[in-house]
Write a structure and sequence with these properties.
The structure holds 2 protein chains of 2 kinds.
Chain A (H helix, E strand, L loop, with lengths): L5 H9 L5 H19 L2 E4 L2 H16 L9 E5 L26 H8 L3 E6 L33 H8 L5 E5 L6 H7 L2 E4 L20 E5 L2 H11 L29 E5 L9 H16 L3 E5 L7 H16 L18 H12 L2 H14 L5 H22 L4 E5 L15 H6 L5 H6 L3 E9 L2 E8 L5 H14 L16
Helix pairs in contact in A: 2-3, 5-6, 7-15, 9-11, 9-12
Chain B lengths: L2 E12 L38 H13 L7 E2 L2 E4 L9 E4 L9 E6 L5 E13 L3 E3 L8 E3 L6 E7 L6 H18 L11 E11 L9 E6 L2 H20 L7 E6 L4 E7 L9 E2 L6 E2 L2 H9 L5 H12 L3 H8 L2 H14 L2 H19 L10 H12 L5 H12 L5 H8 L7 H13 L2 H9 L2 H18 L6 H11 L2
Helix pairs in contact in B: 2-3, 5-6, 7-8, 7-9, 9-10, 12-14, 12-15, 13-14, 14-15
The chains are: A alpha/beta, B alpha+beta.
């Protein structure tokens, strides 16, 4: 029951092969038995999940169920959940129980999905390895000595370890795609504005976007159907209705033109990983696609641009954590300044503090023009690079990451090396485009992801390409060797 | 040395929208603390602002009211600073691209002269909450009801030259925004708060001196006093050869002095940058034209029309056009009685006087404009004298009905029947032999004074209802 896709589970529930309560119990039991190793959950919903499952079973019995009714999901601990702690991976929100649901959560509730719990993540989504979490790093189920990637590492690890059939993540610079690649699952970052940000704890407002993480592209389509759509309470939400992302999954890839940005196949790319990607591209060619070399000439400016804009926005988004209204507050503050400084000193971790400092500096009088304003100008050039490519091709393909998952602790002392992990994913966020990672090979026993980058609101096309690729390959069906544990 | 005062004002105007600028919470004043603060107002994690379209409409109305450029693409920015009553740690404001650009409007001074005052810009922003320092035993309470109330910050050019001009500017601004209906303009409740930028320079110089900013002055009277005080303070410094420090000062109404709050040199770096949670506000011609078409006649236009159409003095026109309610009332009285000048006089002297004494607002006035117009009509057709009219007005105030009802019920109609008057005059002359003798012996100048006695006696006999002009004519005829 635990090693099935969302589509298969949905069919089983509708056919009465098992109930949502049974299904939910089975995942809760696996989490209880196995997550001590993976540390992929920060909070497990337990009773709330079983109550939701029972309600879902009633809907199924009454014939009013939708495709996701009764399906257990794990949500990144960045989405506010009514009555369920939402920590964002930080000591600052360790005690925070929201009195409201994020729009994404209420949409899943509306459709009858069950929340198993909240997954581990880098603190405030700042990180590429999950190691900045206040709750300790989640482990990569393929190699528990390696990172699962970040920031949505808990979600990726939970799905890869078969502790949840699918999960949600958020992606500000690669935080869905990179952990999906490291953990051998499929992850989609939709177009900026496609999924509401309301109730999602903000990191960098102009880059943050929520998306699905699952075994297959098809499952991602099922989840995105629930998630996508206009939200009048998020001014940056695109004023477009949702669409059925399952409709075009089977479309032929004949005549599809795929651009290969030459900058994504250069020196920084691990040779074995590059070979996997080349093999995957040949599969796409075999499915009827034409490969075209293209260029993203401003790629070398992506990291500095991102690491000005994202910390700048983050530095002010995180100002609200001041110990006044909710969250962590230092003991016995002597005065207002002491309240602020000690609350933030004690409540935030190192990486968060580093980014607040960088961002504050970039926005300061006298530096604003040289940093923030310049970065915004370059951001427009980066976006224009993509637009120029899309004049020639339908989508872009390349590696998701420079190499497979690295060992825990390997890059924690070198922030710049850590930032380089996201070199192929960051530009997609700067341009507001949809991007997806699909399993595309193995290197040293660890998964490799291929990244597909689409045009604005071109999620359906990405999912179609991912799905056809997965029909022709079996990388998404591989499982870590030690997972076939039946839990009583 | 002769010093010239240079003043620019920043007014924070609370807009009278029903809900807040970025959330659906109500904006009602005076509610229990923290009962009108939603998750958005409290800056709970994941909450996002959504712009209130009504606030944009009000800002555009103001812009059109001062003939300003409307920002076709205005941008919200974050102004970053930490304070407990600022929940997000930043205020959403507008910095580089405000919704209202350069404009101007006319103010009228005490002597009736007018001046045009430049407006640099006006931008939308959210108000902060309030810190409460009482009742918390050495701790501070926070009330976030006000957090997120829409404000229009209106920045004037340094065009004002005295306390009187500053007050005239604020009164004209108050009049404009209440005409537009975009704010209640209630200074006591903080709907209109004023920051004063003031500097002195040698008379005739055209370079600006170093200014001090006086924060949050919240009544016309305090503005006047704070400015007078600050002028004296700066003049003393300059006369002694010193230099004014650029700083923020606070006006203490109890002590009637300003004192330093903080020095601008160490002021916050607000790290303004465009608010990524909101899209730029794009305003098209059609939206502007729709608003323009719906604008009421504004105070300056009305003042000019009152002078041209009714022949009022500049002073009277200014008083009557000050508020839309009063102007409407005056025009209704004028229409009902047919004489605008007398109507203007009655509204200003009797009506406003009575309202003042009763501490009532015009909206609570017990005398309708048509009633007052009916009363004046009776003066004009000689049914009653001006003196009796005041009596009728008193009765009207007490709710005794229309002028005609009161005149009839109290028998106040003026006696203009020459037969009846003649017999009263005869009666008085017959009863006043000594005064008649005195009168007849007097020279013409003195006679003019002495005739008053006889008029008074006739009026007394008629209970005030005798037509005074006819009585005078009859006496002139009989006392020979």
């Amino acid at each position: 029951m635990y090693d099935k896709t969302v589509a298969q589970l949905s069919a089983g529930l509708q056919a009465g092969q098992f109930s949502s309560v049974e299904l939910t119990r089975s995942f809760l039991a696996r989490i209880a038995a196995l997550d001590g190793v993976y540390n992929s959950f920060i909070s497990v919903a337990g009773e709330q999940a079983l109550a939701a499952a029972a309600a879902a079973d009633e809907r199924i019995a009454a014939g009013t169920a939708g495709p996701l009714t009764g399906i257990p999901l794990a949500h990144k601990d960045i989405f506010c959940t009514d009555g369920l702690r939402t920590s964002c991976g930080s000591r600052m929100l360790d005690n925070f129980v929201p009195p409201y649901d994020a729009t994404l959560i209420s949409r899943f509730k509306r459709d009858g999905a069950v929340t198993l719990g909240k997954t581990n993540m880098d603190e405030f989504a700042m990180g590429s390895s999950n190691e900045s979490s206040y709750y300790g790093a989640a482990r990569n189920p393929w190699d528990t000595g390696a990172v699962p990637g970040g920031s949505s590492g808990g979600s990726a690890a939970a799905v890869a370890a078969l502790l949840a059939p699918a999960a949600t993540g958020t992606d500000t610079g690669g935080s869905i795609r990179q952990p999906a690649a490291f953990c051998g699952i499929t992850g989609l970052k939709p177009t900026y504005g496609r999924v509401s940000r309301l109730g999602m704890v903000a990191f960098a407002s102009s880059l943050d976007q929520a998306g699905p993480m699952a075994h297959t592209a098809e499952d991602c389509a099922w989840l995105l159907n629930s998630m996508a759509g206009h939200d009048p309470r998020d001014a940056t939400s695109a004023p477009r209705a949702g669409e059925d992302y399952r409709a075009g999954l089977e479309d032929s890839l004949k005549g599809l033109r795929i651009g290969l940005p030459r900058e994504y196949f250069g020196d920084g790319l691990d040779a074995a990983t590059g070979a996997c990607i080349q093999q995957a591209l040949r599969e796409l060619e075999a499915l009827g696609a034409t490969l075209v070399e293209v260029s993203l000439p401003h790629s070398h400016l992506t990291i500095p641009t991102y690491y000005v804009i994202a910390p700048a926005e983050a530095s002010t988004n995180l100002s609200r954590y001041d110990g006044v209204r909710y969250g962590y507050r230092c003991d016995n503050p002597s005065d207002l300044l002491d309240l602020y400084t000690r609350t933030r000193e004690e409540g935030f971790g190192e990486e968060v503090k580093r980014r607040i400092l960088v961002g504050t500096y970039a926005l300061s009088a006298g530096y604003y023009d040289a940093y923030y304003k310049k970065a915004q100008q370059i951001r427009r050039l980066i976006k224009q690079d993509f637009m120029d490519c899309f004049a020639q091709v339908d989508l872009l393909a390349g590696p998701t990451t420079p190499g497979p998952a690295f060992p825990l602790g390997a890059k924690t002392d070198d922030p710049v090396a850590m930032y380089l992990e996201d070199i192929y994913t960051l530009a997609v966020n700067l341009a507001g485009l949809p991007g997806m990672s699909v399993p595309a090979g193995m290197v040293e026993g660890k998964p490799v992801g291929m990244q597909l980058i689409g045009q604005h609101f071109g999620e359906a096309r990405l999912l179609n390409v991912g799905h056809r690729f997965q029909q022709a390959t079996d990388w998404h069906l591989r499982r870590p060797a030690n997972l076939a544990v039946e839990v009583a | 040395m002769q010093w010239e005062t240079v003043i620019g004002l920043e007014v924070h105007l609370q807009l009278a929208t029903r809900s807040k600028i970025f959330s659906g919470s109500p904006t009602t004043f005076g509610a229990e603390p923290n009962t009108q603060a939603s998750a958005v107002d409290l800056a709970m994690p994941g909450m996002l602002p959504v712009l209130n379209a009504e606030a944009v409409r009000y800002a555009v109305m103001f812009g059109l009211g001062i003939g300003a450029e409307i920002g076709r693409r205005s941008v919200f920015d974050r102004k970053n600073y930490f304070y407990p009553d600022l929940p997000k740690g930043y205020q959403i404001s507008q910095f580089e691209a405000p919704i209202v650009g350069r404009g101007s409007f006319e103010i009228q001074l005490e002597d009736g002269s007018t001046r045009s005052i430049g407006i640099t810009r006006a931008h939308l922003e959210e108000d902060a909450g309030k810190s409460l320092h009482e009742d918390f035993h050495g701790q501070t309470g926070i009330d976030l009801n006000r957090a997120g109330t829409p404000l229009l910050e209106i920045v004037s050019e340094p065009d004002l030259r005295s306390a009187a001009e500053a007050v005239a500017y604020l009164k004209a601004l108050h009049s404009l925004v209440t005409y537009l209906g975009i704010s209640d303009g209630n200074m006591a409740e903080g709907s209109m708060r004023c920051d004063i930028n003031l500097s002195l320079r040698p008379a005739g110089s055209d370079t600006l001196g170093t200014r001090a900013e006086i924060k949050n002055v919240n009544s016309f009277r305090f503005v006047e006093k704070a400015i007078r005080h600050e002028i004296d303070r700066q003049a003393d410094i300059l006369e002694d050869g010193g230099q004014v420090v650029q700083e923020t000062r606070l006006y203490d109404a109890d002590l009637d002095e300003t004192r330093s709050m903080r020095s601008k040199e160490v002021a916050n770096d607000y790290r303004y940058f465009p608010e990524p949670d909101l899209l730029p506000v794009v305003i098209d011609e059609a939206f502007i034209e729709e608003i323009r078409a719906g604008l009421p006649e504004l105070p300056v236009e009305k003042r000019h029309r009152f002078i041209a159409q009714y022949g009022l003095s500049a002073y009277d026109a200014n008083v009557l056009a000050d508020s839309r309610d009063l102007a409407d009332y005056f025009e209704a009285v004028a229409a009902a009685c047919g004489d605008a000048k007398i109507a203007a006089n009655w509204v200003q002297v009797e009506l406003l006087g009575q309202l003042n004494r009763s501490e009532l607002a015009l909206a609570e006035c017990p005398v309708a404009a048509t009633q007052l117009g009916g009363l004046i009509a009776r003066i004009l057709d000689d049914s009653i004298s001006g003196k009796i009219a005041k009596q009728v007005f008193e009765a009207m105030w007490q709710g005794e009905g229309s002028a005609d009802d009161i005149i009839a019920a109290r028998g106040l109609r003026q006696v203009s029947d020459s037969g009846a008057l003649e017999s009263m005059v005869d009666q008085v002359i017959a009863a006043s032999a000594a005064q008649v003798e005195q009168y007849l012996a007097a020279d013409p100048d003195r006679r003019k004074k002495l005739v008053g006695f006889f008029v008074g006696q006739v009026m007394k006999l008629s209970k005030g209802q005798a037509n005074p002009q006819m009585v005078n004519e009859l006496l002139a005829k009989k006392l020979v």
